[in-house]
Amino acid sequence: MSKKIILNVFILMCFAFAKAQLGFCGGVTGDPIFSEDFGTGITNGPALPAGVTSYNFLNFAPNDGEYTITASTAQRPGWFVTGDHTGNGNGKMLLVNASFNPGLFYRTPISGLCENTPYEFSAWVLNILRGGAANACAGNEVPIQVRFEIWDATDTTILATGSMTPQFATPSPNWVQYGLTFTTTTGQNGVILKMINQGAGGCGNDLAIDDIAFRTCGDATSVATPAGNTTVLQCETDMPQSYTLTASTTTSVFATPVYQWQISTDGVNFTDIAGATTATYTTGVLSSSTFYRVKVAEDAVNLTNTQCVNFSDPWEFRREIVNAPVAVNSRVVVCDRAPGTLEVTVGTGETAAWFNTPTGGTALASGTTFMTSVAGTYYAEAINTASNCRSASRTAIVFAQDGVPQVTSADFEICPDDMQVLDVGFSGGTYLWNTGETTQTITVSTSGTFTCVVTNAAGCDATATFNVTLIELPIIASIDAIGDELTITTVNTGNFSYSIDGFNYQSSPVFNINGLLQITVRVRNNDGCGPVRQQFSRIQIPLFFTPNNDGFHDRWEIYGIEEFPGSRLEIYDRHGKLLQFSTDAITGWDGIYNNQPLPSSDYWYRLYYKDEIIAGHFTLKR
User: Fold this and answer.
1) What is the per-residue pLDDT across 475-514, written as a single tens digit (0 to 9) for each?
2) Is the same domain home to 116 and 183?
3) Residue 338 and residue 426 in one domain
4) Are 263 and 194 contained in the same domain?
5) pLDDT tens-place string over residues 265-299
6) Alpha-carbon distances of 445 from 115, 317, 394, 409, 469, rounded to whole Å
7) What is the Cα–Cα distance from 321 to 310, expressed in whole angstroms?
């Protein structure tokens, strides 16, 4: 790059006022109608369209009178190493090494504009020469200086122009935004943007341009009621009404503004209100949330084009609906006649007030809980703490006080196989036993703990508990006889008594059994359970015999009968015919009657000893 010394004291004095010759919209701007950010990418290019510039495109390190499209200014030594205005790592910009001769370096047509509409043009500009101690130009630096011009579409009439103050290099990158305002005329829908280099070539005068934009410029418009309210909140319980809205501005961009009011139910999607085209508008009677805004343009022809108008901030009518509280329990019962706590849940940002009437009345308390010791019905009303709006209805909660049911509990001991009726002793309630039964009484025959929850009509409950224990019966372990003394032994111990005749019981398990052949031993629990029985025989009476002369069981003989002299024996056939009578039971029987062997069959016997008679039957097998 060649160098040329340019000293300009005036430029240095005016550097701090870079925007002084230019100007931005004095009101509010809309979304860009035209924008140029030169794209994205990691390689230089592509070249600008034909006719946009007279400079030569170079895909790297442009010389005087050349340009490139790039994502980095680090194209030559002494230039900053930085990215585009937005800081996007791949965002590109127009990088210009100004020509030695001042002149036009960028020209582009802008279409799609609205007629009779103020606009703002803006662009970001950066001196890419690194300043400070690293400045390669030292005292020979040529500052950058661009003149911006807006021409009509015929390129015959200039609409606006302004030059940036010469800008010298800075120690760090300093993007500066410049702007121009202009107004299109009737029938004018396009303009031509020109950027002109006003500095000479030499060391410096190297710049980057990014984010060129055209936006509508209009008045900042607000909508409010005569009282200045931009939002009106109406409670559900208030009477609906209408409102008069006025559109006003704090700027004067539009010379003769025109209006169109719009309405919305969600604050996002608006529609025009037919005939509402003045600076004031009176709503209908409002009973639901509604939004209004006004769009403003310089010419009525532009009101239907969203790119040609400015919108006010929405005015909001908000219908505040507060839902009734939700009762945690709609009936609260305190069963010990103590105070009770009633509770409701409400929405976020809400609280509750408590009353003893369904409407009107004076609040008894506030908050989502209420404690009282007076039975009755209470009503909770929800309140929005920000708006003080209240729910249209109240939630009723019944508070009752009662005593608990008086129930009977008891412990029982029952004998095995006995039944016990358990009665809670309270009638007219509901019942739930731990067995699953639901009656006032149940009958049990097993041991265990039985409980019943008894609930009265007020909802108070009490629990009856019954402990049922099975009495343990005696368990006979053995019956032993030594001579005429019989001893009964039990496996378990207890309050037992003993008997061998079924009538007379004694606490001693020892008996004199003189004269007895068979004894039925009885042992009972003195709590009333039993007795248990077991037979004890001092003789053994065979169940069969086989008179076949084989030496085994050839005679039917009662073993041990010899210990009881004087015993008598009778034998009968199945028809009751006496076959043998013996005054000495020791002799037994050989199965012969009238010298004839009797056939295989069952036969009956009767054994007499003193006052005892033992009868039974046996089998003769041949």
Assistant:
1) 999 999 998 999 999 999 989 999 999 999 999 999 999 8
2) yes
3) no
4) no
5) 999 999 999 999 999 999 999 999 999 999 999 89
6) 104, 76, 54, 17, 10
7) 33
Gap between the Cα atoms of 52 and 312, Å rounded:
37
**Among 149, 172, 145, which Cα is nearest to 161's?**
149
Measured from the Cβ of residue 259, the count of other Cβ atoms closer than 10 Å reads: 20
If asked whether residues 247 and 268 sit together in one domain, one would say yes
Tokens representing 138 are 């030292």
Count of domains for the chain: 6
Q: Do 414 and 266 share a structural domain?
A: no
Residue 531 DSSP symbol: E
- For residues 289 and 350, membership in a common domain is answered with no
Enclosing H/E stretch for 137: none
Are 472 and 494 in contact by the 8 Å Cβ rule? The answer is yes
Is 2 a domain residue? no
Indicate the helix (H) or strand (E) that contains 253. Answer: none
What's the DSSP call for residue 42? S
Pairing of strands 410-414, 461-470: parallel
- Residue 129: pLDDT above 90? yes
Same domain, 491 and 466: no
Strand partners, 468: 412, 448
Of 276, 300, 320, the one marking the end of a domain is: 320
Q: 597 and 500 in one domain? A: no
Cα–Cα distance between 197 and 410 in angstroms, integer? 111
Structure tokens given for 59: 């895909």
Question: Is 368 within the bounds of a domain?
Answer: yes
Structure tokens at 548: 């076949």
The answer to whether 429 touches 454, Cβ cutoff 8 Å, is: yes
Q: What does the alpha-carbon distance between residue 299 and residue 308 come to, in Å, rounded to a whole number?
A: 9
CA distance linking residue 62 with residue 95, whole number of Å? 8
Cα separation, 130 vs 107, in Å, equals: 27
pLDDT digits (tens, 9 = 90+) for 172-185: 999 999 999 999 99
The domain containing residue 165 runs over which residues? Answer: 9-218
CATH, residue 588: 2.60.40
Closest to 424 (Cα-Cα) out of 438, 440, 437: 440
The amino acid at 77: P
